[in-house]
């Protein structure tokens, strides 16, 4: 049975290999069919190769154990990789806008060839397949970098759809004498850029939230609290916090126990809390339990 890291690395390599083939196909189709949208799409696929390579290295780094320089592990390498993927997407989108506007200003009247249409169709099928595969694997192993990379593939599929529409529109405009439709190929390039930039921004925002230790979902915190209160000897739960480091959770707790218990008894209760959390909460990296004397609020009233 393959480990999480093996599944992630296999997905990254699959993306690199297929994107290399698509980049070559789209570039040839764009050049020989004179399609600005297809050339822009080829650039998008080339950026996908860089993104998948970044993810490949981040998966290897993030699974390294904690060391003297990184006592909390290397899990946030995935968030850094996801942010890098987002930046690559935004720059790819800006490049597509620039190329498309340039083509519109120049007013090229040569329609794209049929080769570009077939390249777009092949790209849509392959990229959607890559998205489905990487998204499922990324969720299974809780890899933000792999999920971000999956969405990069989905954005490439969208860009290929836009390119397909633009190329088809330009061909129809040429064949039926609608001169303005010939520019549809370049306009499609601008539509592509909107998908790409928006996707890049969303990925950057999510990765930044993790790097800044944004609070996790209330549902997970409530589940942790429920587990803690099941432990015999825990009279109060004063605080529960958690954050992600890559796919793993780091949990900090403050519990209240009877003040007459010995230090060893308090330690044993904390150990039970930690053990039960590891048993019932998935993907936990570490749990820090701080033991306080219970507040006994009922005696103060």
UniProtKB/TrEMBL annotation:
GO terms for molecular function: monoatomic cation transmembrane transporter activity. Keywords: Membrane, Transmembrane, Transmembrane helix, Transport. The keyword Transcription regulation does not apply. Coiled coil: none annotated. The chain crosses the membrane at residues 12-32, 80-103, 115-135, 186-204. NCBIfam families: CDF. This is Putative cation efflux system protein.
